[in-house]
Amino acid sequence: MSSPRKVVVIGAGPAGYVCAIRLAQLGQQVTVVEKEYLGGTCLNVGCIPSKALIAAGSLMHKISDASAMGITVSGVKLDIKKLVDWKAGIVAKLTGGVGGLLKNHKVEVVMGTASFVDRNTVAVRGKDGSTKTLKADDIVIATGSIPIEIPGFAFDEDKVWSSTGALAPKRIPEHLVVIGGGYIGLELGMMYAKLGSKITVLEATAGALPGQERDCVKVIERSCKKMGIELMTETLAQGFDHKGGKSTVRVKTKTGEKSIVCDQVLSTVGRRPYSAGLALEKAGLAVDAKGFLAVDKQMRTKVANIYAIGDIAGQPLLAHKGSKEGLVAAGVIAGHKEEYDARCVPAVIFTAPEMASVGFTEDQCKEKGLSYKTGSFPFAASGRAMSLMDTEGFVKVIADAKTDQLLGVHMVGPEVTEPIAEAALAIEMGATAEDIARTIHAHPTLPEAMMEAAESVHGMAVHIFQKK
Questions:
Q1: 6-147+272-333: which CATH architecture?
Q2: Fewest CB within 10 angstroms: 154, 185, 204, 340, which?
Q3: CA neighbor of 307 nearest in space, from 319, 296, 322, 323
Q4: 319-335 confidence digits (pLDDT tens)
């Protein structure tokens, strides 16, 4: 049996810590370097805390609508400090759990900022100024990404929030201007709307959620309107002035320049891979024009013993994609036959209603010249959705017109971030629309809508009428 390889993993986010644990499970000697906090952006200032606050906003919204069920609630108050403390408690449990897992797997954790000395050596500078040198057979770069700043809106987490600042509020803004109508901007904008803020969203493109299935996006845009959210498309934020506790945001629209007075700005125009201070050149590496490191299917960079996983390894910048890449890299380092060969990566968006997608959109099918058929089923015809008082949206199935193989599944509606896993598995296994239609789905449940949408591809949905 060969001796264990010494591996240094730089970054302890969903890509890095998953990779480190799997390496340890496979018998390797592992050290993780983390400059700020275990769990990375996702667990600390991203996916998890945002979903906690979104859940709180949704609960308040449901309470306000509960009278339709005969439940009348009065005197609902929001204690923002308690809400933030509750969110922090969830984060602490999860990050503590990551720390415990690393310890139980005998993974060494070194806190500090890593930089390359050469292709086999990493120097780690601690917050106290001390430096530790780590030698390794293999090195895995999992440094994640950071929010993009735009000119005129530098993050100070006071007047201008990044997503990090928006997840640790000291107050609920009266009027929040959100720059960017992508998934982060709409998730947080809708959350604050439910908590009582007036929301204005500025989006540079012609519609919200660029790149997503347009039929689903239309439902989200209608929901924004119902919630009183002003969505200003083809609008560019130019800068702002702050005086007397108010910010005046200057914007350029297709009809001219305008000013918007608010008391808080949130900038969410995207994220970029983080590699500052790594001294990649000392290891013979360089990022491309967009900041990514090129990797092969085994997550190797051009330097054979150095791997890159997660956000720095390319789009999509999603935690679950990074975790999968971490498992692949760990297997390769341990000598297993592994490669990243995912057919699809699901995307989930926690707007109101929720949205989830996997596989090709209709636009992508057209761009690729694919012959396809679609079927859809509305949640308005779902008994389970009715019982939840949440019937907005639908499930759309896209199938190859010749083979019936699933090409994409797109959902918008109640809790659709859960059943999208079935669609991802189906595409990964090469299932057809008929396979889904012939699979017995439990009743009454929301995933029945996917079965009916698959039937709809062939004009055979039972619980809606389809003209022949």
A1: 3-Layer(bba) Sandwich (3.50)
A2: 154
A3: 296
A4: 999 999 999 999 999 99
